[in-house]
Amino acid sequence: EADIYQTPRYLVIGTGKKITLECSQTMGHDKMYWYQQDPGMELHLIHYSYGVNSTEKGDLSSESTVSRIRTEHFPLTLESARPSHTSQYLCASSPLSGTGRDTGELFFGEGSRLTVL
Amino acid sequence: AQTVTQSQPEMSVQEAETVTLSCTYDTSESNYYLFWYKQPPSRQMILVIRQEAYKQQNATENRFSVNFQKAAKSFSLKISDSQLGDTAMYFCAFMKSWSGAGSYQLTFGKGTKLSVIP
Question: DSSP secondary structure string, B27-53?
């Protein structure tokens, strides 16, 4: 089993609430990601990070923000949740090669399923 | 930009039989990696198999093997002796190889839902 953890696993909240989805990994991986996935559908990259103090937006426009203050921690925050944010959010990490290059070998968390009423 | 196409939204196979999942991709890159990821119901997505485009030999991992046809831009996954635990969504993914600056993110297909029938 991969050592990457997401909390909460399930969350139901009202519109306008601020939420933070937590993601932690104990593998010392430099690169971390957040994907959005509707049930049974493809993954869309919304944020990624190459390391501490590095964050980038992904292909899918998102109103969420991320931070990377520690290597092992990559939280995602929604300042004001809306029903359109209802989805599953997957966190992942991957090691870089010995020469600092992407390997494409991702380790995923179990996901956080968010429902906004 | 790269695209990954999985033309089979759903498939089913009898336990102990063999099944092949299709994946095609479009890219102008000459060096890249291809992956198959498995997402079981309510469980973590995991890497099944990885292929480097410059390697002609098809990758294998126990009961999982690929048929990589570079000229045809095809990357199918064969599962032999299917087991109930193989029931999952399977995603094909592409990543270009390192060539300097730029973005190196996985491009995923839409997935194929595989059901293994007892």
Answer: -S-SSEEEEEEEE-TTS--EEEEEEET
Residue of B nearest to A37 (CA): B110
Per CB-CB distance under 8 Å, the chain A contacts of B93 are 104
Give A41→chain B minimum CA distance, Å: 6
> A30 is written with which tokens?
């430099």
pLDDT at B99 over 90: no
**What mean pLDDT value characterizes chain A?**
92
pLDDT exceeds 60 at position A1: no
Nearest residue of A to residue B43, measured between CA atoms: A110
| Residue B104, pLDDT score | 75
**Distance from the Cα of residue A78 to its chain's centroid:** 12
Ramachandran category for residue A26: left, alpha or beta (phi over 0 → left; psi -120 to 50 → alpha): alpha
The first and second tokens of residue B13, run together, are 């196979």
